[in-house]
Write a structure and sequence with these properties.
Blueprint lengths: L1 E2 L2 H5 L43 E4 L8 E4 L2 E2 L5 E8 L7 E11 L9 E8 L8 E19 L2 E15 L5 E10 L12 E4 L18 E5 L4 E5 L12 E4 L1
Parallel strand pairs: 1-3, 4-10
Antiparallel strand pairs: 2-14, 3-11, 5-10, 5-12, 6-9, 6-11, 6-14, 7-8, 7-10, 8-9, 12-13
Length: 245
């Protein structure tokens, strides 16, 4: 996997505001079905018969994936990637948690084991849009199996303070950021976490709901404002992440 070093990945970005701290509940509405197809041309969210009741998953990462700094550690603070998903135009789906594919240079060290989340609409290059819900909570970190460039990958998951529902046809940007801020944990001095992309949406669940090229980096640490990481014509520029019911 091509790891994008934080200094290089952020060198061309513009300035970012800090994440909002208040937690609000967005108004979302989506159709819940029994559709278990992995990926389709229609944006119809369903409940696949898999553990965790996944309603959306962008797809697996692989050796052709890129990795973008997404972390709050003693080394790199307040740096987050936002990934987009577009709700179908009819029906209702409620989501309760977000998970990101995260490669960690320090293995399974996430200290404290807490993740932050943020949900926004109206994001564009240099504009972080409107914050709908943000907060933090206990984070689980489950290894995906293989290592990428020798770096282990995990699905880091955090639940929302309140269930969220999606408004018909609206695009939302989600973030989940792992932490390593314990000064008593030596690994946090060098910890780096990356958000992985999915070049071909392998094993995706309703993966077509994720528009191409809609990945943005936000970093108060580097002094950057939501900056688009790739072109909307780059079909491989989609995140490996998902939402649970």
């Amino acid at each position: 996997m091509k790891r994008t070093l934080f200094a290089v990945a952020l060198a061309a970005l513009a300035s970012f505001p800090a994440l909002a701290q208040d937690a609000k509940t967005p108004t979302l509405t989506l159709h819940t079905t029994d559709n278990t197809s992995k990926s389709s041309t229609a944006r119809i969210w369903g409940l696949p018969k898999v553990p965790g009741n996944i309603v959306f998953y962008g797809g697996d990462s692989n050796s052709n994936s890129a990795g973008y700094a997404n972390e709050n550690t003693l080394l790199i603070g307040d740096t987050s990637v936002y990934a987009a998903v577009t709700a179908p135009k009819s029906g209702k789906v409620t989501v309760t948690a977000v998970f990101f594919a995260t490669t960690s240079t320090v293995g399974d060290v996430f200290d404290p084991p807490t993740g932050t989340y943020d949900v926004r609409i109206g994001v564009s290059n240099g504009n972080c849009g409107t914050d709908l819900a943000s907060g933090s909570g206990p984070q689980t970190a489950v290894p995906t199996g293989p290592t990428l460039d020798g770096i282990p990958e995990y699905f880091t998951t955090v639940a929302f303070a309140k269930p969220l529902t999606a408004q018909d046809g609206v695009t939302y940007w989600f973030n989940e950021t792992p932490q390593c801020t314990n000064s008593g944990e030596s690994a946090c001095d060098s910890a780096e976490y990356y958000f992985d992309t999915t070049p071909n949406e392998a094993n995706g669940v309703n993966a077509n709901a994720q528009p191409a090229g809609q990945l943005y980096e936000n970093s108060s640490f580097f002094g950057y404002t939501c900056t688009q990481l790739c072109s909307t014509s780059d079909q491989a520029c989609r995140g490996s992440w998902g939402l649970q019911n």
